[in-house]
Amino acid sequence: MSISKEDLDKVALSQREYELILQELGREPTDVELGMLGSLWSEHCGYKHSSPLLKLLPSKGKHVLVSPGEENAGVVDIGDGLAIVFKVESHNHPSAVEPYQGAATGVGGIVRDIFTMGARPIALLNSLRFGPLTEPRNRYLFNGIIGGIAGYGNCLGIPNIGGEVIFANCYSGNPLVNALCLGIARKTELVSSGASGEGNLLMLVGSDTGRDGIYGASGLASRTLGGDQELRPTVQVGNPFLEKLLIEACLELAQTDWIVGMQDLGAAGLTSSVVESAEKANMGVEIDVLKVPRREENMTPYEVMLSESQERMLVIVRKGNEDKVKTLLEKWDLRCDIIGRVTSDHLAVVKEGHAVVAQLPVNFLTSPPMYRRRSKRPPWLDQVQLLDLVSIPDVSSRQCNSVLLRLLAAPNIASKQMVYRQYDHQVMNNTVVPPGDDAAVLRIKGSGKGIAMTMDGNGRYCYLDPYLGGVISVVETARNLACTGAEPLAVTDCLNFGDPDKDDVYYQLSDSIRGIARACRELKVPVVSGNVSLYNEVQDQSIYPTPVIGMAGMITDVTKHCTMSFKDEGDLVFLLGDMIGDGLGGSEYLELIHGLVRGRPAIDLNLERRVQRSCVEAIQRGLVKSAHDCSDGGLIVTVAESCISGGIGFRGTRWRLKERRDSMLFGEFQSCILVSISPDLTPKLEKVVKRWRVPLAYLGEVGGSRLVVKGYVNLSLDNVEEKWRHGMADLLATKSSIDRTEE
């Protein structure tokens, strides 16, 4: 019997994949089996296009305890018997449909990935992309997503310590919501997700099961967005107060020997959690959907197996300990029900009472076909990479002030305080460096150590050159950590791309991953976890290729951390590194002032590594008072941000670093860090950079109440700060006023 294309599209299976199923089973699948296969073979769960490419990423290192794919999140040893557990995931498509709940449940899902391993969540970060706030739909998405992140995270009592917010036309209608959670655990108390031990019991804990989220993995997250009305039922609804109870109960349960594993119910719900737990332990499972508690009537086995209702956990209980586990969970007012058992036959069996509604080999469910395409460089790249600077007028000396102020007020550079002030970033009292700096820093209580965390990515660079963009996404994240004095430990990545069946998108995906792999190898930073989000398109318009890198670093003595703010009158300011290329390709300046997204970024990986190492050493030796990564907006914006953060001015010499003024002031050069030091420590800094063979250029000194670079910029610090601090708020206020007028 044939199946319609419409029915296959509903479960995100192709005709060829359906034929593979028929061939393997020797029969037609039941409805439940088809739904389970569609979900687990979806791009969201099965990584059909990306898995072969992800093997390029280095994942081993001396501190790595758990690598990608082994468990729900990566694990890194930080000494003293402790480990950090962290991962980033996307919730792009749900957030485009229902921004508040989509973002909120994105936070809830990534938090469950952490505490299911026995680690206490101690920090959240997020990387967000939106279309221009001049459009009402984008403002609706922006406000809803920020509200969802704040609402859920604040209720959990987990500090949101950092991230980024970026705007570009290509994200209109398809925002990116990448959420990262960091947890901490004792190495000896980590919990597996494997369903091991024949006869052990499968217990479902937490919320009742409803119809929300069905087709979330196979439908919403594994195809291009169209109209949103029919997709609303695929978006889950979150309950952070119930999740808080789950956190505490599961962490207490992890301290016992009553269980062999835990797994959260995320994408594909019961299907993925039960089957993947069995696969990790090389076992089988049998469940009865009639034993699954429901909050809606007349739910079919199909709906029960594919529901993505939130705040649910699967606990694999050692047989004979079920009463102890139930008593503990009831203490936390959590419902728990035995829904099945672990078997040794390597089959996933789903029953409705006595009737078998699905029976499939576990390894077949978890082995979707892989697609490795030939990567073809799109011809249009030649055109966008051309940048004829002769045809672009340089800024005059008189224009420098006004251009700087425009850049400082631009949404991609202006202060994001109006965003992160909605997040509680001090709860738990571990936050040493809060949001707004190059990286956040947390203290590890009782150890004297600190963990620095940051997220970074530049879709514009990756659009112009996917390989170099991938490289820069890693090195810029590491450079942010270096500015705090942290040694990088490991990476978690979130790869956001369009439809991989398109040649140009697959090229972007392939080359970006190659770039990430190259940079990670050069910096000796392994990738320990991550997520891939494809089909980020609206009406055939793809987003920029946007790999986002989350990175954790170690500060041995947290009291020796560094920040970006200038500190004291008379301190000297230097540029650590070298300005390679013109710095204008793909820059914020080029798009804002000239309306162009063209050219290419440039990077010298060897120099980058040496710059970062020299900066970390100088900070650890107490030579540097401030350090700030040169990035969006160029060197003069970097200086301005250090002035604003420190509440003190800058008196610069007549810079002669580049022939063009716009390149010198606004070029976005890699491998450059702005540092300030006491004058008497200059000889010691010079010795450090000489040993690392790193250029050092004197720029001026800290002091006064103005930002001055002789011959180019002369502005009051109050004016500079006002533009930067109120840029986004003024834009939103203006547009909101227009909206009300139009109504």
What does this molecule look like?
There is one protein chain. The chain is of the alpha+beta class. Among the domains are: 1-41 and 191-367, Phosphoribosyl-aminoimidazole Synthetase, Chain A, domain 2; 391-428 and 562-743, Phosphoribosyl-aminoimidazole Synthetase, Chain A, domain 2, CATH 3.90.650.10. It is 37% helix and 23% strand. The protein has 26 helices and 28 strands. The strands form five sheets. The protein has a seven-stranded mixed sheet with strand order 8-10-7-11-9-12-13, sandwiched between helices. Strands 23-25-22-26-24-27-28 form a seven-stranded mixed sheet, with helices on both faces. A six-stranded mixed sheet has the order 1-2-3-6-4-5. Helix 8 packs across helix 10 (240-254) and helix 23 (635-646) packs across helix 26.
Shape: globular
Radius of gyration: 26 Å
Number of strands: 28
Poorly predicted spans: none
Distance from first to last alpha carbon: 54 Å
What is the helix fraction of residues, given as a range?
A: 25-40%
**What is the CATH C-level name of the domain at 391-428 and 562-743?**
Alpha Beta
The description of the largest β-sheet is: 7 strands, mixed
Q: Based on helices, strands and strand pairing, what is the structural class?
A: alpha+beta
Instruction: Give the full name of the CATH homologous superfamily of the domain at 391-428 and 562-743.
Output: PurM-like C-terminal domain
What fold name goes in the CATH topology slot of the domain at 391-428 and 562-743? Answer: Phosphoribosyl-aminoimidazole Synthetase, Chain A, domain 2
CATH architectural designation of the domain at 391-428 and 562-743: Alpha-Beta Complex
Mean pLDDT: 93
